Amino acid sequence: MTSWSNEQIIARRKRLEGLQKxxxxxxxxxxxxxxxxxxxxxxxxxxxxxxxxxxASAGLHAVEVFGSRKAxxxxxxxxxxxxxxxxxxxxxxxxxAAASE
Length: 101
Fold this sequence. Notes:
By secondary structure, the chain is mainly α. The protein contains four helices and no strands. It has one domain (about 5-100). The longest helix is centred in the middle third of the chain and has 61 residues, at about 5-65. The relative contact order is 0.07.
């Protein structure tokens, strides 16, 4: 068994500390990237919700203008089911009631 000199021990300790530091920095970068991905996903979900609201509003407007879901769907190239998904039922019912008055 060989004996280690103080210089060898100090050099080995510095190498290990360097490896630990590099690993810690890599972990910090990975964590920052994960946080950025979560934040970007959250912002995208907010944009999606806003866009869905705009689509529902435009669909409701189309129902108002055309007088019925069927006519609006035909003009927009949507099936009745697709239009029902875009325009919530209570909003369409209010529009139909207002149109009949």
